[in-house]
Amino acid sequence: MSLRNALLAMLTSQPMTGYDVYKNFQTSVGYVWHAPDSQIYPELRRMEQDGLISGETVPWGKRGTKKRYSITDAGVESFQEWLNTPPEYQRERDPVRLRAAYLEWAEPAASADFFRAHIEYHSARIADWEEMIRTLRDHSNPTLARRIEGKSDEEAERITAYKVFAYEGMIARAEVEIAWAEKGLELVERLGGQS
Amino acid sequence: MSLRNALLAMLTSQPMTGYDVYKNFQTSVGYVWHAPDSQIYPELRRMEQDGLISGETVPWGKRGTKKRYSITDAGVESFQEWLNTPPEYQRERDPVRLRAAYLEWAEPAASADFFRAHIEYHSARIADWEEMIRTLRDHSNPTLARRIEGKSDEEAERITAYKVFAYEGMIARAEVEIAWAEKGLELVERLGGQS
DNA sequence: GAGCTCATGTAAGAAGTTACATGATTTG
DNA sequence: CAAATCATGTAACTTCTTACATGAGCTC
Fold first, then answer.
1. Strands annotated E in A38-161
2. Residues of A in contact with B95 (CB under 8 A)
3. CB A102, CB B83: distance < 8 Å
4. Which site among B94, B116, B195 would you substitute to test the A interface, given the most A Cβ atoms closer than 10 Å to its Cβ?
5. What is the dihedral sign for C-alpha B121, A125, A39, A16?
6. Residue B34 in 3-state DSSP?
7. Which are the contacts of A15, defined by CB distance < 8 A and separation ≥ 6?
8. Which residue, B39, B175, B69, is CA-closest to B30?
9. DSSP one-letter code for A92
10. For residue A21, what pLDDT is reported?
């Protein structure tokens, strides 16, 4: 159900078309939740059927049209209900740790590449999230700007702070991944792999 | 494909029945990878068809039988190929961070409960993994004992070290989650939620 | 012999991935 | 006018979850 709530979260800032949502999933919100277009369009239709959002066909260019969805009161209620419900944790499923546990079967060079790739991946994510935090802090983020429009300074600060805090959590975790992978590189150098 | 590789990883230590695998997924290996029995039995059958493992029907009690699977040479090769291949990262999909980013819509009490649940969950996982590391370090872990049987001290140390290292990675990440959630509690206290 | 463990499934459905497909509009 | 962007899908498949189902063996 998180996809549905990610969509509701987005639509609390402003009405959007499926394509707008798709774009957001590739950048901003996509840094915490991603979904492909093949998942987005059908889900939006289902949500409209369930009354959580309402779609309005608006003209686009001369002949084209597009469908813009707005969150309904029932949608806001459903979103808040989700936020107020205790989280459910899924069982662990960590392919990276699974691999690491069996590196005695791997070639040392491949193991080193594996850790280097891990460091690179998480470094790139940190750069994304730091940039995101920057645009949140200086309010140059258009979605945030729309969101805090007409709100008091206190409210604007609160809205911003939670978003920054979420991305800070992502960064902190990625930093631990990098430190772990660096330890992994040392380990591989010291122990090697298959004999 | 990680389920398949988790199964191969397990079977590198010793032949096992589907039920043995299921048990392991509830404890030891289950702390990095989990799968329900409804996924395990069909996957083992598919792996046998693909020649990665071979099943042997052995008697169990007076009339009962069970099927014990052993990894084949092709299975070891496939497992090593996976270990030697660069990792693929899936797009982010983090329900906890998604929620955190929108806590201005939640009730402060529910937000605090959310962070407290997060701390509790990760504290429990740390306890599991620390216990796991203990049984690996003192070689009282039966699966590890089987795995290092007849191996040199150096090899035994290497095998153990990678497993300990993997669990240490899980612990490090969980500790960051706890620290983040503690910051979250402060934030909620300072900022509150919906007005 | 009751209750737990060992053993092995099926079935329905939700969630997510990958590939294929099409057409209008805007921009350089 | 070509290329990029906007717009919206379908189809097949894999993965995972949840629930239902059954029966033998072992232990107290």
1. 53-60, 64-71
2. 2, 33, 87
3. yes
4. B94
5. positive
6. coil
7. A56, A68, A69, A70, A71
8. B39
9. P
10. 97
Give SS3 for B67: strand
Protein contacts on strand C: list nucleotides below 7 Å from a Cβ. 6-12, 14-20, 23-26
What pLDDT score was predicted for residue B1?
A: 81
- Cβ distance B155 to A91 less than 8 Å, yes or no, reads no
For B68-74, which contacts have Cβ atoms below 8 Å and span 24 or more sequence positions? B68/B15, B68/B16, B68/B17, B69/B11, B69/B15, B69/B16, B69/B17, B69/B18, B69/B44, B70/B11, B70/B15, B71/B8, B71/B11, B71/B12, B71/B15
CB A91 within 8 A of CB B30: yes
3-state DSSP assignment of residue B71: strand
**Cα torsion for B98, B104, B105, B108, to the nearest 10°?**
100
Model pLDDT, residue A73 = 98
Instruction: Say what the pLDDT of residue A86 is.
Output: 93
- CB atoms B94 and A33 under 8 Å: yes
In this complex, the answer to whether residue B101 has its CB under 7 A from any atom of chain D, a nucleic strand, is no
Q: What percent of chain B stands above pLDDT 90?
A: 93
Residue B66 DSSP SS3: strand
Residue spans of the domains in chain B: they are 2-84, 95-191
Task: Tell me how long chain A is.
Answer: 195
Q: Which two tokens stand for residue B113?
A: 């409960």
Which residue do the tokens 């969950």 mark? B121
Q: Which CATH architecture has domain A2-84?
A: Orthogonal Bundle (1.10)
10-residue averages of pLDDT along chain A (195 residues): 96 97 94 96 97 96 93 98 95 95 97 98 97 96 95 96 98 98 97 70
Query: Which pair of structure tokens corresponds to residue A195?
Result: 């004999």
Residue of B102, B192, B116, B179 whose CA lies nearest to A166: B102
Parts of chain B with a pLDDT under 50 = none
Interface touch B158/A192, C-beta < 8 Å: yes
Cβ proximity of A32 and B94 under 8 Å: yes
